[in-house]
Amino acid sequence: MTKSILNTLPSQLGYRLPAEWERHEAAWLGWPHNKSDWPGKFPPVPWVYAEIVRRISAGEKARIVIESKEHKLQALSVLKASNVDSSNVEFFIMKTDRGWTRDSGPQFIKGDGGLAQVNFKFNGWAKYPNHKKDRKLPDFISKKLGLKTFVPRHNDRQVVLEGGSIDYNGEGTLITTEECLLDERVQVRNPGFTKSDYEKVFRDYLGIESVLWLGKGIVGDDTHGHVDDLCRFVNSKTLLLVQEKNPRDDNYRPLAENRERLQDFRLENGSRPEIGFLPMPEPVIFKGQRLPASYANFYFSNAAVLVPTFNDPNDKTALGIIGEFITDRPVIGIHALDLVWGLGTLHCLTHEQPS
Fold this sequence. Notes:
Helix content is 22%, strand content 24%. The chain is globular, with a radius of gyration of 19 Å. It has one domain (3-354): L-arginine/glycine Amidinotransferase, Chain A (5-stranded Propeller), CATH 3.75.10.10. The protein has helices spanning 45-56, 69-81, 101-104, 137-145, 178-182, 195-206, 252-262, 314-325; strands spanning 3-4, 24-30, 61-66, 89-93, 107-111, 114-118, 148-150, 153-154, 157-158, 167-168, 173-177, 210-214, 231-235, 238-243, 274-279, 285-286, 289-290, 299-300, 305-309, 331-335, 351-354. It is of the alpha/beta class and 355 residues long. The model has no long low-confidence stretch (mean pLDDT 96). The protein is built from eight helices and 21 strands.
């Protein structure tokens, strides 16, 4: 049964937000079913998911949220055909709107008392009205796992936050963007919130001591600035930032500005982070729409780092750069040209559950 703690903050109990490269018990995914997320391009998507599950289940449980028993049979058929060992795959039946578990799922925190959850409110990226089923995912998971649950509140209201809007080093530093969390006109998550408001929430509920604020995210990102398409920790002191070399590209100026901001950043211990740079692929455009194709949307699994690739000359370069910084597990490319038509790729659809 879920245990809710209302009067004690996680930080007061010694909880912290672990880094993604720390050991996982499982990864949560939502098996695709909403064809409107990939209009006209849905048929290949389950096969991409199967490859992701195959790689993840080699080192941790793949916990897959499905719509029904029939939906489970469909998923099992694709997984079997894709040579996935189903012994490390678990299914959970829950009706959802979409399958982007990074954003709708809980934040898992760790302390001396073990694992607990922080259940932020999900509001469909302040854009999509069909999100009320997804909003129930954190409570569903906490009940299944029997975890203590904290519900963040500030200024007398529940705090809205998506998992893709933050990245963290496990030692007390978190990175995010002003575009996503502070814009007061477009996709507003928490009206009236300031940097200080967010920093207090992150400190109280996630154990964060230092918040690093970038400016804008990449072009084509319909979340309005998620950091997991932009800049990622690869270890406790190193950030990888995407950069655009073409001055005529719409990404060039905002990414250059973010690079300048990094020079002033300090980690939780006062030191400067080490900085590496990832290229951008050539613009991926489908049906006249630029898509948020980015190598930064990789996922740390126990067995490998899974990196989206786009049939682009920079695929190999990006995999090599990530491999230079992450040496404790292989770096594997996953074809994501079909997946990105859903306006997200590998990190967006996975959510790690720490051991």
